Amino acid sequence: MSTVGKVIKCKAAIAWEAGSLFSIEEVEVAPPKEHEIRVKIVATGVCRSDAHAISPSFKEGLFPVILGHEGAGIVESTGPGVTKFKPGDKVIPLYMPQCGQCKFCLSPKTNLCEKISKIKTAISDQDLMPDGTSRFTCKGKQIYHFMGTSTFSEYTVVAETSLVKIDDAAPLEKVCLIGCGFSTGYGAAINTAKVEPGSTCAVFGLGGVGLSAVMGCKVSGASRIFAIDINKDKFSLAKELGATDCLNPQDFKKPIQEVITEMNDGGVDFAIECIGNIAVMNAALECTTVGWGTCVIVGVAVGGQTIAVSPMQLIMGKKINATFFGGWKSIDSVPKLVSDYMAKKFNLDALVTYTLPFEKINKAFDLMCEGKSTRTVLVF
Ligand code: COD
Ligand code: ZN
Ligand code: ZN
Fold it and tell me: Which residues of the chain are modeled with pLDDT < 50?
């Protein structure tokens, strides 16, 4: 029996309040309105930012909410006015939209889109659909959306500017990582740092994002890639993906930036921070070389903490840059990244430590928080 135009009852993981576990509930998902698409999510990764969003120290979260921003699925139905999608299309929801019309979309200088309206606090943005209402209810309560994607639900509704069609042959339980972690780290190296052949790099934090940055440095031809993490269990995969020197700051008496500066003739060309720790952001800037060193910040510190930078570092030619979704214009780039994966240009499979049934979502968060997984992919 067709579900088109009807409310769908399905399972979703709801975060009822900050700091609580997810509870699997039956939710009602309303049909898509104008310029919206209802998507059957097949697989979703679990990213550190989902944990940030429900952390009690992150003050801007709205509850109850359906999180998840690293998913892949199949179009179930389309709302009025949708022309680019049809039922059965394989798709990736995009937390970074691309409307194609705003001043940012029209500029080659940025991948931001004004449809992420509150750019300053983008993680908590798009808690509702563009018309200011929710498509999710549970136990008579309205449930908030998250980042315009809400992939922790068997069915979700997204705006057409936050969705892209991908290759019909793509394995959704792998390419879902292109929806966030992989693209963010890989793009930080390629698009934002613009790592050059023969250059030296340092990547801080070897989660899914940092390891993807290592892959981006390697594919750009870096000759030396320092990979830094306080969890030494991350090192074997980092080496497999291209790291040449793996360092644990806890193994040294000196600050890690001094260690790297000494090991690499006054510092590296590029440093990429993939943790969201302000002290490490400073270390990343400090370990770059005087003259032209570039530090790229990927992480966002919870609680609105800020970084202090000595102007002297900048006067000495060091640069700070940062990136959101790896600098990729999402609708233009995600299908190409999927094709590149299919052509074996990079190794997403290595990032998937566990594939678990959706109901194990709390286990997936435990594995991430215990440092035992790069990515866990949940399948419906
Ligand atoms: N020194 C070295 N390594 C550290 C330190 C430290 N002080 N603290 C933690 N680490 C290591 C951990 O052991 C871990 O291996 C790694 O850093 C972090 O990995 P994960 O798996 O926790 O995180 P990722 O890779 O999923 O995500 C990292 C982000 C930086 C993207 C994320 O945390 C973040 O800040 N997101 C907000 C910015 C953003 O772009 N959001 C959009 C969607 S993600
Ligand atoms: Zn993410
Ligand atoms: Zn736009």
Answer: 119-124
